[in-house]
Amino acid sequence: MPGKFGKPTDPDYGERLAEFEARIARGEKIEPGDWMPEEYRRQLVRMISQHAHSEVVGMLPEGAWITRAPSLKRKMILIAKVQDEAGHGQYLYHAAETLGVTREEMLEALLSGKAKYSSIFNYPTLTWADIGTIGWLVDGAAIKNQTMLAQCSYGPYSRAMVRICAEETFHHKQGKEMVILYAKGTPKQRAMAQDAINRWWWPALMMLGPHDSDSPNTPTLVRWGIKTKTNDQVRQEFINEHAPEILEAGLTLPDPDLRYDEATGNWLHGPINWDEFWAVVGGNGPMNKERLEARRRAHAEGAWVREALAAYAARRQQTAVAV
Amino acid sequence: MNEQVKQALIAKLTALADDELILAHRDSEWVGHGPILEEDIALANIAQDELGHATLWYGLRSTLDGSDPDRLAFLRDAAEFHNCELVELPKGDWAFTLLRQYLFDAYEALWLSAAKDSTYKPLAEVAAKILREERFHLQHTQAWVERLGLGTEESNRRMQAALDAQWGYAQQLFVPLEGEGVLVAEGIVPDLGGLKQTWLLHTTQHLQNSGLKLPLQPGYQPTSRQMHTEHLWSLLAEMQSTARWDAEAKVW
């Protein structure tokens, strides 16, 4: 009996792989328990857990402003937003668990620094306008990626994405509304909004991943329907939507080469500083250490709580058995 | 409503709102730092509910005096806040936060149950609305007190320390405002003295069933809502920092 995660050395691998790829080509979803190549599983665990970690680490830069939100409404919206991110982390960990990995293993990989999360969360949130800008640009970029992933061939991931996208769309709208409001506000509000756009624009472009030529996983991921578009395609969609809207709001973008290309209908951007991207991915962004440290601290400080819960549950079970 | 009653009601609504706002603020400090993802979500829910309650109470005040809830929250000085001291205390550990939330929820659920029969219709309506949420909070925090009280030696020790620290402060929840008597006489708000007995009965029983001992010495008990801890100023300095940063800003 061959395992459900097939390896190229399995005797029937070729036949099974052909069936698997034919299912994907027909647009069928792969579900937990179905046969799949081990490499498909590995890529999905990597992507889904990275995505889950991004949600959880992403709570930190925005959560830091909950205590400084300037109105009752903004404070409420921000708590709800960060809470949604925790919820997304939860669905995604569940989706990854369907591939035979536990949440504890994934958390361990995050806390030990082995697992990655989105590079964008290694930038600091310096002012209140960063909260609106993250909603508009970072969630905007995430939505482009997630809308694509909602089409993904793995059922649990695709369904998680549909649900997450609906909430992200809401966050995106709130962020955009906020930045546009400040762009029309007092001189200080306006300056704060512009400064935030200046700082987040390039990291938002980078978070969609390296150029296709530097993304060795992409062809396999596309063939297996995990990704249905390349990084550059998704980035282009993001720019085409956001660049004109930001300019329309009366703000500028920090890219002197940015221009609209009549022929293709695309907004073309100048060169991306990939050295910065790789430095951040490699652990040397402005906030990498702080973010990981905050997660480690929360985990360590919560250890006694988790132990107490386990002890209490065990005692309850014993009592139930005794009765 | 005569002027004396109106002024007393404005003061009471402010105190109610301030309690909720400051408690919500302290709870929200946990967002992103909880011991378990699911509990991070649950506490964020409670923080949102409390903040929502604050908004409702400030809103009700606003119908009486036209005040702006955001100005009250973000541009008022510490000395003008009338929350109880319990809610100002730093969030402490998970035991401290959950015990405080429990003691507060147990009080609030009782207060609201009585206040939903208020002779002042708008207050009765808000109380009834909030009560539904507050019952969920109480269920949740009551369960936490039990789990931590009966969990491990360490969780019991931390819970006990939280109780020793908070018990005196919690008594302030039942200290009426100056002038609150008028509102009680008019049937607008419940009599805190009566509620306190029920609260003591419920909480004492639950705390004891959770393996905790009431402190022999109640400790410091604040007697007036004009009094504050050293923590309020810095809490507000942080909370109001963005709103105060741009004096010209009309909207946020």
UniProtKB/TrEMBL annotation, chain A:
Keywords: Oxidoreductase. Coiled coil: none annotated. GO terms for cellular component: cytosol. Its EC number is 1.14.13.149. InterPro entries: Aromatic_CoA_ox/epox, Ferritin-like, Ferritin-like_SF, PaaA, PaaA_PaaC. Pfam families: PaaA_PaaC (PF05138). One of its GO terms (molecular function) is phenylacetyl-CoA 1,2-epoxidase activity. Gene3D superfamilies: 1.20.1260.10. GO terms for biological process: phenylacetate catabolic process. This is 1,2-phenylacetyl-CoA epoxidase, subunit A. It comes from Calidithermus roseus.
From TrEMBL, chain B:
Signal peptide: none annotated. It holds the Pfam family PaaA_PaaC. It comes from the Bacteria. InterPro entries: Aromatic_CoA_ox/epox, Ferritin-like, Ferritin-like_SF, PaaA_PaaC, PaaC. GO terms for cellular component: cytosol. One of its GO terms (biological process) is phenylacetate catabolic process. This is 1,2-phenylacetyl-CoA epoxidase, subunit C. It comes from Calidithermus roseus. The lineage of its organism: Bacteria, Thermotogati, Deinococcota, Deinococci, Thermales.
